[in-house]
Structure formats: structure tokens, C-alpha cells
């Protein structure tokens, strides 16, 4: 397949996830709830998880944002559903390295989200792609799996934001 056809396929996957997001909505039985904002562009993401036996039993997101942030959230929810907390947190690290890092990573665990690698060519869009993954990381890192409303200040996961 030619490079331009492959790029077009990746764009179609992103557009499909943005226009028809998976796991969009709210959870009645949420055990984790976090809202993050991207102050640069105004994207807002509410992420809810239902954790059971150290696994993500259910997941949902809502909010408003650009095509990249909505597609990334949809892809992330698909990829982490059913995973353990440790597996999901590892996926956050792999996604972060894919988007902002310089090391080669195995993207198989990211499923459709691997197509967002091209975002690294557009630094202004990195925070958009990272928003849902950052929310997931914050929710999983919290002792009670909740977090207060916050802003995404940096796309560099090593800063602890």
C-alpha cells in the first residue's frame, strides 16, 4: 500500500473515532472520576472508570474537544477496557513514549491508538492526543482512583502532571 493511501487510512480511523466515539457517555457505577482541561485549546475531558478486582470493568468519557482529543479518548477506552490497572498504566507509558519520546516502542498493545504517532509532527496537537491518557494515569495513580478537576500543563509525562 502506498504511503499516501496509508496516511489516508490513518486519517479515516481518526475521523471515525472522533465522529463515532466508543464508550462516550457517563457511568452510573463509576469508581473513578476525573476531569482534565487542556488550557491551550480548551479541550475538556471527563473520564470515568469502574474498577473491579484490579481490572477496568467499564470506562466512559465525555466532554468537548478537537478531533484528535476525542479520537484519542475513544481509542484509549477501547484499548484499556478489561485490562488490569498495571497493564493500563503501562499502556499510558507506551502511548506517551510514542507521542513525545524518541525511543522505538512496541505499539501492538495500543490497538488503534498507535495511528496517533503522527501527532508528534504537530507539537501543538500533542496535548490534545495526551489528554485522555493523562486523565487515565491520574485516575489510576490516585489511592482512591479519583482526582480533582485539573489542567493538563505539560505533555511530558515525566514531569508528573
From TrEMBL:
The gene is sufU. PANTHER family: IRON-SULFUR CLUSTER ASSEMBLY ENZYME NIFU HOMOLOG. This is Fe-S cluster assembly sulfur transfer protein SufU. Pfam families: NifU_N. Residues 10-128 form the NIF system FeS cluster assembly NifU N-terminal domain. NCBIfam families: SUF_scaf_2 (TIGR01994).
